[in-house]
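Dear U.,

For the methods section draft, I wanted the exact inputs and outputs in one place so we can describe them consistently. I've listed the two proteins in the order they'll appear in the manuscript figures. Please don't edit the token lines directly; just add comments below if something needs changing.

First protein:
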Amino acid sequence: MKYSKLGNTNIEVSKICMGGMSFGEASEKFHQWTLNQTDTQEMIKHAYSLGVNFIDTANCYSFGTSEEYIGKALKNLGIPRDKVVLASKVYFNEGKLGK
């Protein structure tokens, strides 16, 4: 895996970022094709084993469950928080930033 420094920090971030839009609870009102918690965890485990340490998500992906699934997967896999760079975007949904 190739890495780059994040800005002026010493943080090494993989040049490949895993997108979290496909993680979270499926919904008829949003994405019906998302991965469940078990499959999300397996995907993160595999990507991390290949050196991917950069995950992107947003509070509106799968109504916030993408962020929840990613967090649970990292915890369950025992991946230290300081070994992963999480990027998230904020979508203002009627005054609420998440659950």
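Second protein (the one for the lower panel):
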Amino acid sequence: MDAKAFEILDRLYPEDISFLDEADPFRFLCSVVLSAQTRDDYVNAVTPKLWAKYPEAADLAGCDLAELEEIIHPLGFYRAKARNLKSLAQEVQKLGGVIPCDINELVKLPGVGRKTANCYINHVLNEPAVIVDTHFARVAYRLGYTDHKDASEVEMDIRKNFPPSQWSRLSMTLNLHGRKYCHARKPDCGSCPVSAYCRRV
């Protein structure tokens, strides 16, 4: 495996990369749940309305589901996401407002899979994490960092092939690269700074 592509992207992209506006732990976790199969800028446009209506986890836990659905309707899959958000808030309330720090406990929360849990571990807890979304998985595969397309297998390959000190930075740079150049259907290979390392070209 050749890590030179990552070294180039690491130098190319900003030191701090973030896609969601929220910093508060609970609000950030909810934002990641909302971001599933949805553009992050859409989430950032909706969350101010969400927190204006439900500023605390307790407010969201006791919300009217139809009213919550109306607020997050623009994000798609709004019914499932509304159920997950309300259930997530209720579960956090049961835990005394404390969000788990362990990934095995985080994924037990409603609407929280490994990608969401790893986002939380990385951005809130500032601990190493491999965040596998569609952008990351696509770029990692094209650069030869994994031979798999299943998210859990991609995550395990990255954990095996890169040291923990690089996991978070790799996650963010490959994700950003997928958004800027390495698109799913029409990648901008002519402008891509790491096309020489891509197995698609």
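Candidate sentences for the figure legend, describing the second protein: The two ends are 17 Å apart (CA to CA). The chain has two domains: 4-16+128-197, 25-123.

Thanks,
Y.
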